[in-house]
Amino acid sequence: MTIQRMDNVLIVVEDLDAVIAFFVELGLELQGRGPVEGPWVEQVIGIADVKQDIAMLRTPDGRSGVELARFHTPEAISAEPRIAPVNTLGIRRIMFAVDDIDEVVARLLAHGAELVGEVVRYEDAYRLCYVRGPEGIIVGLAEELG
Fold this sequence. Notes:
This protein is an alpha+beta fold and 146 residues long.
């Protein structure tokens, strides 16, 4: 048996509303949000007394998503450094394909995001950049050329 697809990526956050707004501005669609707790969650994630709020967002094509979680109990643990550079071990970014990288970057910058480096051209194939959003979340943007 093989993998069918990548369904979603989990990001643990402190300010759920700000991060939802960032991903909605990027173009993801909020599918729902609400509290999650109880024995089934505790058994899946291996943590007792879990109380969290989650939000599920999907890409417009419905193929992949981002799950956001804000833990009430136990309290979330911060990784160090808080705003980690791209070469820090672990998951560093999520890449999204976009139609117009300049338009998307402008929208995100207007909402407080910042470019990590520059918008660059990779041969005749792509324009690429990394953008840092709320809570240090990095998203990559790729505009296919031609």
